[in-house]
Amino acid sequence: MAENQNLFGRILGAFRNNPNRPSTSLANPAEWLFADNESKTGIAVTEKTAMQLSAVFGAVRVISETMATLPWHVKQTNDGIVVDAEAHPINKLIHHPNTMMTDFTFRETCQAHLCLHGNAFIAIKRDGAGNPLQLIPIHPDRVDVKVYKDEKFYQVDGKETFDDSEMIHLVGLGFDGVMGKSVLEAARESIGLGLAADRFGGSFFGNGANVSAVLTHPGRLSDEAYKRLIRSWTQRNAGLDNAHKTAILEEGMKVEKMSISPQESQFISTRKFGVEDIARFFRLPLAYLGSLENSSTRANVEEQGIMFQRNTILPWVKRWEAEFNRKLFIGNDAERYYIRFNMDGLLRGDIRSRYEAYTKGRQWGWISANDVRKFENLAPIEGGDAYLQPMNMVEVGRPQNDEDDAVE
What we know:
This protein has 408 residues and is of the alpha+beta class. It has helices spanning 2-16, 47-50, 54-69, 89-95, 103-117, 183-186, 188-206, 223-237, 267-282, 298-328, 333-336, 351-363, 369-375, 402-407; strands at residues 72-78, 81-84, 119-126, 132-138, 143-148, 151-156, 160-163, 167-171, 213-216, 254-257, 337-341. The chain has a three-stranded antiparallel beta sheet with strand order 2-1-11. The protein has a three-stranded antiparallel beta sheet with strand order 4-3-8. Helix 3 (54-69) packs parallel to helix 9 (267-282). The termini are far apart.
């Protein structure tokens, strides 16, 4: 009872005194209450609008799907030997996190939250003994993080509150160690510019690829004649279906085109730059966003694949592993068990490259036939655990004829 009262006191203190979310009222509103998401283009950049930009959608998708496809397992270390702990309850939990989601959907959703919002929140549902039973992702917009006396608390929808042990908090790049920086905020202007370019393109082609035109009349039109002219011109000449139709003018009227080509308005270059800019924010090689202009050779694409694994995915993997291990394993299990992602699949080459690598490893004695079969998801064979040793390999400093002399 005393422990519960102590926890309640800490939570209450967090709500009353939180440096990251100062108290506010209608009479004295805090600055964060009026924060908006509108870019300088006038377009609001939100999760929904940002995902309408192909570069953002592609970046979030490739990172999230990659994280969701990586194998992850609970490992155990015994006397320096690492083995799979498939029977451990946490291993079952991470592969069946809750009744609503598959393991793939669970990780894809959480990583998408991380990519856009810089934070992912996962509530841990435990039994009476404190063992985790379910992992429930919560959208970052629903969570308010409170800090009180070096402890974090999480308030969901302004109602339910979790302490640090009840919430897995995956934190992206940040500057206070508490919250990750939202890409939607950091890249607001770049995303807004990309959305504006998309809307310009839609408007440009929607108007028959004509930016504008001026109709001149030798006299003065009445208000009714002016409205009829605009209506008639729009119905006959605006839109893709009416592109290149012949305009019919009356009473000595003339039309002067005042169009600007997409090239002249730098429309195409703006769109290309937008893709490059988004790639920088998400730390993605351009080839992964479909931009292959500077990736003409196979070697270049392969190098970008290595960069993708090392610079894009590995930091996310380390964040996942550290936070999940810290929150899911309690007591003695925290010293014996841990979760690890297997990233070997990202560098899995074609069948010829794999077989050549297996051949070298087998000949030089550091992998067995069953090791190879396990890599290829094949069942082990009898006698396949033996390791080979080249005939001409001897210890340093030992004469090669020692064995022959011993036989004699």
